[in-house]
């Protein structure tokens, strides 16, 4: 029970922070505002985060919450390719509507220079577990090429998805990430198919 409460507290802080970052910008958001909007305490904030900069890498936590939510709504009769496209579209829609280009740029930047944990690459994240599950299903049901391992499929998909986000960032978000991915992702995923 205590673990669930701690996850809820951290989740509240992360959700409030990213909401505020999107609404008023990273630089103009204070820890006090994050604590107030999250309904937590400063002590709780500092229990989970060293400071506001530590929140930059927490975007992957928010993405994982979205994936957990999508598991409940995803049509399980979809093919593995359709599941991957569904997850990608829902994530990119969330990014377009709740994460500014500047914040996504800061996330990528923080992952490049960090000497600590690279959250985007943490294979214990819900994201990677879900991708492995879909890749395994694709292999077992004969959708994907036999010579591709589950790890090959998972890594390639994650790398392509990050590449789409990175390109969107360096183009300053001047096109729809969702629409572009809706065209490019199916073409990319065809390379996995028999």
Note the topology.
Blueprint: H1 2-24, H2 31-38, H3 42-48, H4 59-73, H5 80-98, H6 101-113, H7 126-140, H8 150-170, H9 177-190
Helix pairs in contact: 1-2, 1-4, 4-5, 5-7, 5-9, 6-8, 7-8, 8-9
Describe the 3D structure.
- This protein is mainly α and 194 residues long.
- It folds into two domains: 1-49, Arc Repressor Mutant, subunit A, CATH 1.10.10; 56-190, Tetracycline Repressor, domain 2 (Orthogonal Bundle).
- It has nine helices and no strands.
- α4 crosses α5, α5 runs antiparallel to α9 and α7 (126-140) crosses α8 (150-170).
- It is globular and about 55 Å long.
- It starts with a helix and ends with a helix.
Summarize the structure.
The chain has helices spanning 2-24, 31-38, 42-48, 59-73, 80-98, 101-113, 126-140, 150-170, 177-190.
